[in-house]
């Protein structure tokens, strides 16, 4: 069976797709943007959906990073530097105050 590219979605459908993706698991803004770009008819639709999700506080990189770091610390699996590296791989914009600084950051204390 030949490969068929996924159907391109209009504004309403791309918004529903974004909610479905966020319902599966938390995602960073960059991760969600990449997924939506692959399926959207127009780039402007992606920007509009992202802006709407941010306004509704459904999509927030800071909250994503804090929740991710907390879950990693709670499971006692990784240290602070690894969490920061993993967040960078997920393309999460993080404040310079926590990256590479010896000062306490907003990451949970168990990770620091």
SSE topology sketch:
Elements: H1 11-24, H2 29-39, H3 43-55, H4 61-74, H5 80-89
Brief digest:
The protein is mainly alpha-helical and 112 residues long. The chain has five helices and no strands.
Query: What's the pLDDT, averaged over the residues?
Result: 83
Alpha carbon gap, first and last residue: 51 Å
Percent of residues in helices comes to: 55-70%
Q: Radius of gyration over alpha carbons?
A: 17 Å
SS-based class: mainly alpha
Number of helix segments? Answer: 5
Description:
This protein is mostly helical. It has 2 domains: 11-55; 60-97. Helices cover 55% and strands 0% of the residues. The protein contains 5 helices and no strands. Helix 2 runs antiparallel to helix 3 (43-55) and helix 4 (61-74) packs across helix 5. The model is unreliable at 96-104 (pLDDT under 50).
Pick out its properties:
single chain; 112 residues; mainly alpha; 2 domains; 5 helices; globular
């Amino acid at each position: 069976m030949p490969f068929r590219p996924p159907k391109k979605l209009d504004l309403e459908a791309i918004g529903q797709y974004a909610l479905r993706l966020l319902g599966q698991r938390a995602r960073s803004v960059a991760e969600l943007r990449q997924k939506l770009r692959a399926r959207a008819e127009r780039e402007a639709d992606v920007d509009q959906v992202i802006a709407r999700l941010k306004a509704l506080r459904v999509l927030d990189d800071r909250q994503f990073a804090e929740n991710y770091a907390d879950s990693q610390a709670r499971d006692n699996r990784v240290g602070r530097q690894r969490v920061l590296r993993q967040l960078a791989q997920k393309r999460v914009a993080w404040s310079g105050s926590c990256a590479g600084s010896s000062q306490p950051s907003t990451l949970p204390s168990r990770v620091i």
